[in-house]
Amino acid sequence: MNYLTLSYRGKEYTWEEFNNEHIKFINQLELPDDLLINWGIRDFSVVHDVGYSIAISKFRELYRVIASARYALINAHQKFYDSNVIGVEGDYRNQIWMRSQFLKNSIIWYNSCEDYIFQILWFGFDMHKTVIESRENYLLLLQKAVYGKIIKELEGLKGSSFEVHADRLAIRIQEYREYTSYLRDNLANNLKHRGNLNFSGIEDLRSIRYSAISKEKSKRFDTEWIEPDVIDIDDTINILKDIHIKLLEFARFILDYMDFDNMFEVDDQEQYVMNTIKNKRDYKKIIFD
Hints:
This protein is mainly alpha-helical. The protein has two domains: 1-30, no CATH class; 34-283, no CATH class. The chain contains ten helices and eight strands. The chain has helices spanning 15-27, 39-45, 50-77, 93-124, 135-143, 147-155, 163-179, 181-193, 233-258, 280-283; strands spanning 5-8, 11-14, 198-199, 211-213, 219-222, 230-231, 264-266, 272-277. The chain has a two-stranded antiparallel ribbon with strand order 1-2. Strands 3-6 form a two-stranded parallel ribbon. A two-stranded antiparallel ribbon has the order 4-5. A hairpin with a 5-residue loop joins strand 7 (264-266) and strand 8 (272-277). It is globular and about 70 Å long. 27% of the residues are buried.
């Protein structure tokens, strides 16, 4: 006997089905522990290759940003909150508001992830072509680690012995950018620069529409032009779930591409020889002189 049955968006759930759906969702959001590259490799590599050491640190930072985005998305997916923040009285609008707060955080965190990947590439392959001389200098170089500059540097390798590897990397970057264009250009951009996003069920729209027509019968103004974008919370959660999966695939491609394990010599027991490092041309797929 089912003592408790729940209905959500026209679908009936038993309590067990309701919880199992949430668990299934969580299981689709893998936490990429392999991005936590061994801190020993990071710390020893700085003596020989500052760029790769910074890239390893950025991979570890990327892991933490993904974990934050994932946590927020899991909480956005949770359909019901027994919380003293919103209370349980009233209709479901309070629950949508609570979930939307987590979802907005998840949007911002997932959008930030590509910045960390660009920083990994920018410093890892010394695309800035300079020596880091101070913290101020490092922070200035950090600001330049953006999509446009990285693509420009990769295009600059055409005609060199590194062209094939550079093209392969550029293609994967552009594929990820295209896949995440809605996240970046619509969701995150609206949150950061255009006021906000509205969510179906709690949208705050004008009750009266106003439209002005000129003497020439052309429209001079319409309040629809200035209304915020309204998104469906469940559809957007599923979009971010797919982006999470694509992000991990992209990050792992970069991890494999950089081949950190090939940086050090190994002894007869297959242990890293930390005081000996190979020539950069022996382990880096692209070099910027």
